[in-house]
Structure of ABC transporter substrate-binding protein:
Amino acid sequence: MGFQVEIPEQPKRIISLVPSQTELLFDLGLEDRVAGITKFCIHPAEQIKNKPKIGGTKNFNFEEIAALKPDMIIGNKEENYQVGILQLKENYTVWMSDISNLVEATEMIRQIGVITNTFKPAQKIIHQILTGFQDLNYPDKIPAAYFIWREPFMSVGQDTFIHQMLDLSGFANVFADYNRYPEITPEQLQAAQPAVILLSSEPYPFKEKHLPELKNLCPNALIKLVDGEMFSWYGSRLQYAGAYFQELRKAITSAL
């Protein structure tokens, strides 16, 4: 989805198509310049309540977008759909991120800071993120399976942002030989022999009731519910991820 765009000198009516980048805009102090968001944008909860919704991340309401008269639209290659983005590009300035690791995440934050003339707040957020991650040092990785979906079970491959978050937080992804988001059979899970199974809160909302199903498949594995936002949101929420990962790793190490 690579294309060059001319950015307005200081965009004043921004539509965000990605939840984690929506939160970033608010944390940069741009609440008054956010013209629209998706129905999946949930943070910050109070400020987003009255913002117009333009559909989902993969099904835009083009009439609503037109009515909002945006001078800039911010999306993401993975979270949005190419057909919709190309249609938007015909009429609007569309800026896209493409993120698979922490370096690319902080660079996205820096670029949005430059584009929106909020460079100093962006640098502060980046500093807080990197400070939180610098204390993560786990040479002994715990073999782990991370699931994002059920029926079928879906995990994460080596080329995903979540994979790097697993690595940085001290876990060895047992499905690292796969790419993207592979479907995993019960037999594949059993063969992988994870010491830990991490069940994400999103996109599938895993709950306590799902633990016995996995325990039956892998009776020797520790099964734990985790905050999916910490593993997959690559905006300003990363400020809290380092501390979360430290506590998670500590709790799991104690339980094994």
Remarks:
- The radius of gyration is 19 Å.
- The CA atoms of residues 20 and 235 lie 5 Å apart.
- The mean pLDDT is 96.
